[in-house]
Amino acid sequence: MSSNISVSKGVFVFKNGFSSTKNRSKLKRRDENIFSNHLWYRVFYTQWRDIETKLHIINTEKFSSTLEGLIKFVHTNCDQKTDDIPTVVLLTGVNMPDHKEQFTTLSKEIKENITPHCVTLQGQDCQNLKHLIENMINGFINNEEDLINFSDVDQESAYIKKAQCTFSVLQAWYENLYSNNSLLNYSGVNSPKSQKSLANRKVLVVIIPDLENCNEAVLQDFILIIHSYLNVLPFFLIFGVATSLNALHKALPYHVSSKTNIKVFSSQPSTVYLNNVLENVFFTDHCAFSLGGMVFSLFTDLFLFYDLSVTEFIKNYKYSMMEHFSQGNFTALCCYNHNIHDILDQFTHEDFESIRRLYSFRDLVEKESSFKKRVELLTNDDYLKKVVQVKVSMLQEYKHFLHIFLRCLYILVKDLPKTPLGRQIRELYATVTSKTISDCPHFKECFQLLNFLSKENLCLKLKNIIATIENNLFVDENDSKLTEVNEKLKNFLKKLNF
């Protein structure tokens, strides 16, 4: 070996614009599934996608009133220079598992409508002051949304290491970002030029969703430090409190809380949120899948006595749907009424045989009086297809009237003394789907109590029932059964001269 040849040779990699296809292949496979070609999975996927869309709408509406007041408070404090740190305390209740979604929605709303500078810090980020400050400043400066449009070289130059994240770096970054607004000219705060610059700058919002999990001493020092920079860096704090305001008073003594301007907001309780989800999603005709009374009672008990998490309740509901549909293509009959014919057209002979193995099919055959039709049910797939289509349509119609019946009965019994059938519609649903309601002693007790109602209270309940029925008639004007019931109730009110 020559003396001027190294034993080891280096390999150097140069970027030549090559982009890996790994990420692209992941995107292509994201929506693929090993069950994608199965009929039952396609029906399940379509139904759950519709449910998720409705849940997203409800989740957005859930925080609308709270967010409206909160956003208004932020806007008001953004337009003026204050000596105290504007602070929002959001009382979220003990429903810890759902806090993540709530603050994710809040952060998104702030970034879209108020300021792009919004950082969320978890409790584990607040155990050490250095760690807390580095994570906060890193979140502001190295925002992925701000760096996404840069090239690789620009990203490397713009990116700042976490160890280099200090308040002086944050101040320099902020001044450079809004250099055209003359932010450093604070000598004449009341001058028109200064007021215009204050209006144009964007606040730095720091969200801490779980105040109880933060180190109190670290949090106190953090607030005192950012208060000292308030004349050059417009901070805004948002704290999430799961228990009560006592936790805030304990974490922030007077010498710290006096540096803040605190506004308290309360979010919707998780029990109210669950009732809203049930009444507007799962107890409607838009959800073809329904839980039995015992399983539903189990899920509600887990919610009430274990975690108070609506997210976990929805997951349990989804797992129940998955278990049901995964039994085979015959479970695809759990669908919307207008899709039954198309789904039955895709059934194979084996799918019809799966239907014949159901316990309910045995009852159907035994109730058929004609021997010839019994044989047809057992041997003729085309005949079975017609019968199944009729029976599933009848089932969907029954569910439609069940949901209306639930709402009407709930209006009658929800405020009776001792509430024999429960205070919430979910309790009534569990009873109705687990036993014959008319044979239930509590049902008979409710109607005995209704006999003691005054004429005014009874008529008011009947008017609310009529309004509920007419809302359903607005959706389906050709529903003759509902129309008949509605007319009978109106005639009864006329007899009462109300």
Provide an overview of this structure.
It holds the Pfam family ORC3_N. Residues 4-333 form the Origin recognition complex subunit 3 N-terminal domain. The protein has helices at 22-30, 39-62, 64-78, 99-113, 129-141, 144-147, 152-158, 167-177, 192-200, 216-228, 245-251, 254-257, 270-282, 293-307, 310-325, 340-345, 349-356, 359-367, 371-379, 381-413, 425-432, 441-450, 455-475, 480-495, and strands spanning 85-91, 118-120, 204-208, 235-241, 260-266. The chain has 498 residues and is mainly alpha-helical. It has two domains: 64-267, Rossmann fold; 273-452, no CATH class. The radius of gyration is 31 Å and the shape is elongated. It starts with 21 loop residues before the first helix and ends with a helix. Residues 146-157 and 181-197 have low confidence and may be disordered.
Adjacency order of strands in the biggest sheet: 2-3-4-1-5
Give the overall form.
elongated
Rg of Cα set: 31 Å
The CATH superfamily of the largest domain turns out to be P-loop containing nucleotide triphosphate hydrolases
The CATH architecture term of the largest domain is: 3-Layer(aba) Sandwich
How many alpha or pi helices?
24
How many DSSP E strands? 5
The CATH class of the largest domain, by name, is Alpha Beta
Gap between N and C termini: 112 Å
